[in-house]
Design brief:
Blueprint (H helix, E strand, L loop, with lengths): L4 E5 L4 H13 L4 E4 L7 H6 L8 E4 L2 E4 L1 H11 L10 H27 L2 H22 L12 H6 L3 H11 L3 H4 L1 H11 L2 H6 L3 H15 L3
Parallel strand pairs: 1-2
Antiparallel strand pairs: 1-3, 3-4
Length: about 220
């Protein structure tokens, strides 16, 4: 039987990692296609003609784009091990915090590794402020979904694979300001779905150094 699920992705992408985690959580077999973003495949351009970006989930030849939408789609199609809560209010809250991560964290990480001096210090401050707000939301719960690993955890945990690179480039230690986030991340990493989806932190740092060279950032 032909593989019905294809993930068009790029290995260091935290957005793609979300989709990988969700698929692993559901036990879905899928074909992984790592894209060269400087020479995008015809399949990617065909499946995401609007944004021409990864990740794209192709299910029975039908594309689903944008990582948060993909994770929700996976959760709805494969109903085992639900990621979103069944209660409408709790589900709305989970979507709110996932949206917070989506709108705040990536831009803050870029400020840490693309800038220097005062601008970088401002970027680090902003990044830590976002993590502190998320840490307060986590509270003393094991996961953002309470006792169970869920949608917000899937949305946020991919950034953990970038922490080492950010700390090295920004010369700071996240655990000093946000120990609960690190404890939470280590709990997440104990899950097979997360451990399989997240690349080695030093490999991510190596990629970041190459990216900085390519962009002319010294």
């Amino acid at each position: 039987m032909a593989i019905e699920v294809i993930l068009l992705d790029f290995w260091p992408s935290p957005f793609g990692m979300r989709c990988r985690i969700a698929l692993h959580e559901k036990g879905v077999e899928f074909e992984y296609k790592d894209e060269n973003l400087r020479n995008k495949s015809e399949l990617l351009l065909k499946m995401n003609p609007v944004h021409k970006k990864i990740p794209v989930l192709v299910h029975n030849d039908k594309p689903v784009c944008e990582s948060l939408i993909i994770v929700q789609y996976i959760d709805e199609v494969w109903s085992n091990n639900p990621l979103l809560p069944s209660d409408p209010y709790e589900r709305a809250q989970a979507r709110f915090w996932a949206d917070y991560v989506e709108k705040k964290l990536y831009d803050a990480t870029r400020k840490v590794w693309t800038t220097k001096g005062e601008e970088q210090e401002a970027g680090k401050k902003e990044f830590i402020e976002h993590l502190t707000i998320l840490e307060k939301q986590l509270g003393d719960k094991p996961f953002f979904g309470g006792d169970s690993f869920g949608y917000v955890d899937v949305t946020l945990i991919p950034f953990y694979s970038w922490f080492y690179a950010l700390e090295t480039e920004g010369k700071f230690t996240i655990e000093e300001s946000n120990p609960k986030i690190i404890e939470w991340a280590k709990r997440c990493m104990q899950r097979e779905s997360v451990a399989k989806a997240l690349p080695d932190e030093k490999k991510v740092h190596g990629f970041l150094l190459e990216l900085k060279k390519m962009l002319g950032i010294e």
